[in-house]
Amino acid sequence: MTLPSVVLGVAALVFVAVGVQGLFMPGRIVEPLGARIASPSFANEIRANYGGMRLAMAALLGIGAWRTSMAMPALALLLGFTGGLCVGRAWSWLRDGAPNGFVRIFFALEAVGAIAAGALLAR
């Protein structure tokens, strides 16, 4: 197993874990943020973005982990997605103040994914 396939495989598993919670247990995503699912529209948005999108990402990252020809595009996807999340979180940290521990864990996982993907793409 190559290093890119390990990184992509681990990232896919993390995305599956978040995606399953987002799709089937959206409250587990929003309650640590101080919110609750208060409307069908809010539930829909969480299920789509934290559920469906993360599960689709997991599938694409998994394909990259198992098909060598897809590893570089999957790493680019991982870098773009997690890097973008990190930029948004960093900007919010500066503008809005420090987030709670739950958000910091997401930030750390996303930063590790972005750094690992970027390093593998650079080599």
Mean pLDDT: 97
- How many domain units? 1
Order of helices and strands: HHHHH
Cα end-to-end separation: 17 Å
The SS-based structural class is mainly alpha
The rough form would be described as globular
> What's the assembly state of these chains?
single chain
Radius of gyration: 15 Å
Unreliably modeled segments:
none
Tally of helical runs: 5
Question: The biggest beta sheet, please?
Answer: none
* Total count of strands: 0
Residues in helices, as a percent range:
over 70%
- In percent terms, what proportion of residues is strand? under 5%
What's a quick, concise take on this entry?
Helices cover 83% and strands 0% of the residues. The protein is mainly alpha-helical.
Question: What can you tell me about this protein's structure?
Answer:
The chain has 123 residues and is mainly alpha-helical. The chain is built from 5 helices and no strands. 83% of the residues lie in helices and 0% in strands. α1 packs antiparallel against α3. The two termini are 17 Å apart. The mean pLDDT is 97.
Topology (SSEs and partners):
Layout: H1 3-24, H2 26-30, H3 40-66, H4 71-96, H5 101-122
Helix pairs in contact: 1-3, 1-4, 1-5, 3-4, 4-5
Which keywords apply here?
123 residues; 83% helix; mainly alpha
